[in-house]
Amino acid sequence: MNTTLETTANPRPEELAFLGERLTAFNDSDVGASQRKALAVFVRDEDGAIVAGISGYTAWGWLYVQWLWVDERLRGRHMAGQMLEAAEQEAVARGCHGALIDTFNPNADKVYQRQGYQPFGTLADFPVGRSRIFLQKKLSPA
Fold first, then answer.
1. Which of 44, 63, 79, 141 is placed for a possible disulfide with 99 were both Cys, Cβ 3.0 to 4.6 Å?
2. Of the candidates 83, 104, 72, which has an alpha carbon nearest to the alpha carbon of residue 39?
3. Is residue 83 helix, strand or coil?
4. DSSP state of 74
5. What's this model's pTM, rounded to 2 decimal places?
6. What is the pLDDT of residues 54-87, one digit of tens each?
């Protein structure tokens, strides 16, 4: 088989979907189906606009919080903690036993630790001058 190596900043959506399908098939055969399911929590204002939110997913018994954002006007009001608690409750209802989040923001790190997340790893200079911190939390049924 002859092959070529291609590097691109503009992969086609169908190419990315193909990679995702192939990796999912491999992982399913290797460790079992992930049961991956999206999970989002939104906070809306009186007009219905999103002013805070979480986006992530559950898979293999874990909640992964990929994005967490709070509008500047709501910061300091424990909104992140409330959203995390809601996401964790849904994850437990889905059978999850753990949660994972990462950040390179020192303030966010403090918020997550106050919510019971414990650091388990760091990646220095990601971005340069900061460290990316990986945190986890054991989830238990209420």
1. 63
2. 83
3. helix
4. G
5. 0.90
6. 999 999 999 999 999 999 999 999 999 999 999 9
